[in-house]
Amino acid sequence: MFTQERRALFVFGLILHACKCTGEIKVSLQGATLSTDGSVWDDWVLNRTIDGRTGNAEECKCCTAIKRPTWLQLNLPQTYFVKRVVLQGRTNVVNIGRLYQFRNITMFGGNADNHMVELWVTTSSDTIRTYEISPPHAMQAIRVVGQQGPDYMTICEIEVYRQEDCIIGTYGPNCEQRCHCMNGPCDTLTGTCGTGCQSGWRGAACNTTCDNGWYGRDCLSRCGICLNSTACNKTSGMCPDGCAAGYKGSFCKDGDIKVSLQGATLSTNGSIWDDWVLNRTIDGMTGRAEECKCCTAIKRPTWLQLNLPQTYFVKRVVLQGRTIVVDGANHQFTSITMFGGNADNHMVEQRVTSVTNTIRTYEISPPHAMQAIRVVGQQGPDYMTICEIEVYRQEDCIIGTYGPNCEQRCHCMSGPCDTLTGTCGTGCQSGWRGAVCNTTCDNGWYGRDCLLSCGICLNNTACNKTSGMCPDGCAAGYKGSLCEDAAEEKTTIELSHGELVGVVLSAIATGAVCSVVAVLCLRHRRRQTSTSNNMDRCQGTAVSAYDALSPTTKATSHYDTLTMTIPPTSSECEQIPTALKKVEENRRLQLNQKTVAATYENLSPNLTTGEEQYEKCENS
Question: CA-to-CA distance for 86 and 128, rounded, in angstroms?
Fold first, then answer.
């Protein structure tokens, strides 16, 4: 019986596992928008497809019909993992034409026009068409495309169903992916953790374990030197088998490298005993001062400065004195102080950690950047004797780290950053900026050194700072992989009856104005032609008198050459300003004509005969 119960529980568990995340929730379409490139039938407006009603199309007034070929796009209020889309058509399919409402249509879903994928229909009838999507697909837009056909594409309702909300620690399609955020849930779509990662995890979704050699929150801490080069625990940083030789401490970080002093220099302000020159302090030898000839002795008060070949993060300094301490020699390390730094005015005092009559040790934690070390001997009864100065630095940082204990991160395009400052000579990786490439791009910027501006993302969200992609797709009116291209989509304009009447009356009034202007221009043209003919008849008689005029009194009127261009079509109202301009020009020319006539009348009496002949001619 017990075995049968276990089998039943096992089968039940399998059923539960198979059914996980199979629930769905109907998406509220409040705030959704619709667009099309086609012509809508009568007043069957687009919004009817998301009003929640279905039925007999003529009775419910709940359907839209768009002339094929066409498309209808539904833009959801936000991006969801969509599991099912249902298209409902008119239920009163009473003739052959209406049987085609769902014929030859295709559905696409995604976040933007160029990120949409085709969805496959799973069940279809003359009135209902269903698309089951497995695994669920992230969608913010759904487009239904109706190919060329003999009738309209009719849709009464679009229903969208999404997957259930994920529990904390999961995200993605069917909530099957894991995230390890420091606090709260991750983003359901992308898994992004806004609060950072738990210890031992890294990445935007905090679902990648630390690389070997790193541990802690966001994997920002570097492991110590573990025995047999094993990796430390990625959560705690502890070495599983203890520290390698020469290292100690909880994290096996207390290790160092002896600095080669080849190329180093020494200086002092004091008097040296006999031939005990300064260079003996860096010759690598220690022992009995009189025998080894390896020590220097400087009269107090004094100082001795060691200038290293370059700047290092120094972890430890050891001063070694003469090994045989007799008489006043036991004062060799009495009342001395050590300073370290990069210049005289940037030196800081270092605290001694252990001292004897022959050895004085300074442990420096965290390591301090030093290029110069100065030992100061205060006033005393004897000499300050030093046989050897030993300097120990931290280990070299691996690529991507710098600073004391290599605990700071840099994101250079290639190669390591400067161990001391973190400066990247090759520029920053995509998504990072600053001299040390350890500052993420500001919102709205992305790419190498954060020099590229994001496109226009949906809901004003920030784009991915590495790729520039918008996480939820493009805002309305934009498209392209980076949402930088303005979309050009034709949308049906729906006017009420009153608005339509207003537009028609406005068009009629505009046409009437154009016609009146055209008629006026035509009459003026005819009047101009008649006057020109009369002038031609009189020209022969008056020419001799006119030719006698002084060249300074002759005036050539542009009236004779005026040409009025009548618009070919009265409806082309954009040509009205040109016509009116020419009418005004004609009026000015008439005024000029009168001025010429007045001048003509004031001419010498010798022209009287010619004028009389001209008047007779004009009256005939």
Answer: 7
Question: Per residue in 26-44, is it b (16+ CB within 10 Å) or e — as a string?
Answer: ebebeebebbbebebeeeb
525: amino acid identity, one letter: R
Look up residue 138 and give its two tokens: 């992230």
CA within 13 Å, CB half, 121: 15
pLDDT in tens, 319-368: 998 877 655 556 677 889 999 998 666 899 999 998 888 889 999 989 99
Largest CA distance in the chain: 153
For the entire predicted model, the pTM comes to: 0.46
Amino acid at 501: V
CA dist 430 and 413 (Å) reads 8
Contact between 318 and 369 (Cβ < 8 Å): no
36 in Cβ contact with 491 (< 8 Å): yes
List the Cα angle 82/85/91 in 5-degree steps: 165
- In whole angstroms, give the CA distance from residue 116 to residue 138: 10
Pairing of strands 478-479, 485-486: antiparallel
497-547 and 608-619 are packed helices; what angle lies between their axes, rounded to 10 degrees?
140
User: Under a CB-based contact definition with an 8 Å cutoff, are residues 200 and 216 in contact?
Assistant: yes
Instruction: Name the 3-class secondary structure at 433.
Output: strand
- Provide φ and ψ at 303, rounded to 5°: -145, 150
Q: Report the half-sphere exposure of 577 (CA within 13 A, side-chain side).
A: 1
Q: Residue 68, Cα to own-chain centre: how many angstroms? A: 38
Question: End-to-end distance of the chain based on CA atoms, in angstroms?
Answer: 137
Strands (E), 438-540: 439-440, 445-446, 452-453, 478-479, 485-486
